[in-house]
Amino acid sequence: MKIVNDWHIHTECSCDDACLTFDNLILTAKNSGLTDFGVTDHLHSLVQEADIANSRKEFDRIIAENPHLKGHFHFGIEASVMSKWELDKINRKDYEGSAPIYGIGGGPKNAEVDFAFNDEFLEKYGVEYIVSGVHWTRYDDDEPLAVAKDYHRQYLFAASHPKTTILAHYLWWNPIRGMENPFLSDKYVTDSMRNELKAALLQYGKAFELNLDAVILSHSEAWLEKYLGFVSELQSSGVKLSVGSDCHDGSLNGTRYSKAAKLFETYNIDTSKFFTL
Description:
It is a single chain. This protein is α/β, with parallel strands linked by helices. It is built from nine helices and nine strands. The protein has helices at 22-31, 49-65, 84-91, 119-124, 144-160, 191-204, 212-216, 221-237, 255-266; strands spanning 5-6, 36-43, 73-80, 82-83, 113-114, 129-133, 166-167, 207-211, 241-244. Strands 1-2-3-6-7-8-9 form a seven-stranded parallel β-sheet.
């Protein structure tokens, strides 16, 4: 079993520490055996519009120089679930200091959430697909159960959004608060939460991401046994699975794909049925 797709890749155009050039993306994708893949630089708020514009410019250059890649290399974005409160403040430039790359934070508890893009934005940059990510929770009490519940609320929003193509890195934990990872315990992530997410993915026809760098290849075997058991259940139920390296490195190291493929085979996850555009 081989992995030949990667639908979650960041480049040096991204707002964070990603450093992969488009030229090296294409070279190392080929060397890693990928046949169909896409670039998905970050869009948290419209602060990142210039990043997406640069990413699209580089994408167009690559396609012009490598016409054989048309239909195999695709342009997407990774959109963060954000509170409408902070999106509105950012759009009004109602903040102090430099532009808030990762949002403002704070705001009302259980704030209504949204994405920064609209149809005009997607058309302007020719966005073919959207990987929807939950990256932080700042709209709740600062304790594990409340945090887990708010992440779950955001996952359901992303899974039900009409523009979402792929739900990104389920149960990835951003340790921005310095608190213990609540996703390591079934005390906070329950079977009812998993079942509700599965139902939403099926109802709205969204793919579920197997995130290699941030989830699959960064956890203990015991935790992965539970996680990949759930993934196998999703696939058996009819949910499409998508592979995303979430690469922020300077190259797409093919070792990550071979390691993950062996894991998936162990848990009877069929890579031949994975999502592709």
